[in-house]
């Protein structure tokens, strides 16, 4: 998530991503030596994806990651552990074994699934993921590194530094969101903002496919924002969502929800992956995605999709309430 986008994460609690991991924290005893590093049990799978092996990084990328990790460590006042698994630099106030488990059981499966559906460009630069065990430590590191006064935000992606900072105590949903942003920036840097946020928000809560090689979005707290707008007849036309070049701060909450559930709508029609790849190809001639959507949905104007999308939303609500 860019420096201007993280505020949306205060609007509702993010739950653990279905298909990912149950994280169980032990208490940190103040004043003891063990308070420097949080004891965290290894993540447990609900629905095991295929075990993914990391590709062997180039020597230059490995050295670049190691150098960057050392420089970052000097800027953080907390005692943190570091694990370099190029292109990833994992840092946090957790045991090294936990960082290893996070890499093997969370990050690699997410990257693998996203590369199958969307991203063709493999990361060729360091991606830093800093995980903190509580809000206070998260806020402290966010300010030390990026001068962010984060309030109760759960995490953010500092795009110019390719750095994710998380309060992991809130669950792994934020990691799915921010990692999508990071990998998308490498594969499709000119991706329209509405789609970038919609795709990332889709992975706040999702599950692995039966084969373990795809991520499928499921319902989350953003649905209520969208359904309330629908009930009050305040839902904008789909064309207005897609045509905007920048997301309005006044409409941020509704726009994120709208974009997320439109991505879910496309996913259920098996059009989300084709849309991503076709739009990436067409980007110079279709900067917002309007024409690409018209082609995929076989319509002359996106207004022809509004009724079907709203019907889908109503059916989605009924199915969710059953």
What does it look like?
46% of the residues lie in helices and 11% in strands. With 322 residues, the protein is an alpha/beta fold. The strands form 3 sheets. The chain has a 5-stranded mixed beta sheet, sandwiched between helices. Strands 1-2 form a two-stranded antiparallel sheet. Strand 8 and strand 9 form a beta hairpin. The radius of gyration is 20 Å and the shape is globular. The two termini are 33 Å apart. The N terminus is likely disordered.
Q: SSE order, as H and E?
A: EEHEEHEHEEHHEEHHHHHH
On the 0-100 scale, what is the average pLDDT? Answer: 85
The CA-CA distance between the termini, in Å, is 33 Å
Largest sheet: 5 strands, mixed
Q: Could you tell me the radius of gyration in angstroms?
A: 20 Å
Spatial strand arrangement across the major sheet: 3-4-5-7-6
Shape category: globular
Number of strands: 9
User: How much helix, percentage-wise, in residues?
Assistant: 40-55%
Structural class: alpha/beta
Low-confidence stretches: 2-48
Secondary structure tally, helices: 11
């Amino acid at each position: 998530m860019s420096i201007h986008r993280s505020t949306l994460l205060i609007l509702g609690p993010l739950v653990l991503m279905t298909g990912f991991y149950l994280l169980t924290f032990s208490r940190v005893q103040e004043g003891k030596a063990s308070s420097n590093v949080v004891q965290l049990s290894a993540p447990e799978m609900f629905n095991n994806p295929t075990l993914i092996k990391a590709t062997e990084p180039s020597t230059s990328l490995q050295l670049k990651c190691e150098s960057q990790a050392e420089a970052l460590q000097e800027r953080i006042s907390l005692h943190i552990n570091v694990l370099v698994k190029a292109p990833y630099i994992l840092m946090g106030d957790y045991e090294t074994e936990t960082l290893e488990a996070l890499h093997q059981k969370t990050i690699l499966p997410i990257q693998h699934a996203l590369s199958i559906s969307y991203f063709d460009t493999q990361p060729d630069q360091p991606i830093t993921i800093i995980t903190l065990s509580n809000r206070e430590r998260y806020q402290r590191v966010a300010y030390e590194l990026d001068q962010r006064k984060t309030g109760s935000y759960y995490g953010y992606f500092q795009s110019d530094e390719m750095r994710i900072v998380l309060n992991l105590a809130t669950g792994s949903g934020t990691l799915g969101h921010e990692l999508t942003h990071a990998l998308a920036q490498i594969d499709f840097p000119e991706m329209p903002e509405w789609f970038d946020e919609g795709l990332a928000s889709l992975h706040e809560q999702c599950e692995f496919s039966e084969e373990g090689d795809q991520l499928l979005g499921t319902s989350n707290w953003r649905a209520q924002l969208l359904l309330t707008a629908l009930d009050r007849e305040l839902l904008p036309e789909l064309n207005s969502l897609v045509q905007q070049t920048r997301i309005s701060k006044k409409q941020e909450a509704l726009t994120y929800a709208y974009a997320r559930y439109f991505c879910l709508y496309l996913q259920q029609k098996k059009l989300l992956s084709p849309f991503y790849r076709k739009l990436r190809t067409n980007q110079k001639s279709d900067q917002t995605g309007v024409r690409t959507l018209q082609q995929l949905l076989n319509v002359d104007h996106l207004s022809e999709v509004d009724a079907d999308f709203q019907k889908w939303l109503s059916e989605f609500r009924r199915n969710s309430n059953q």
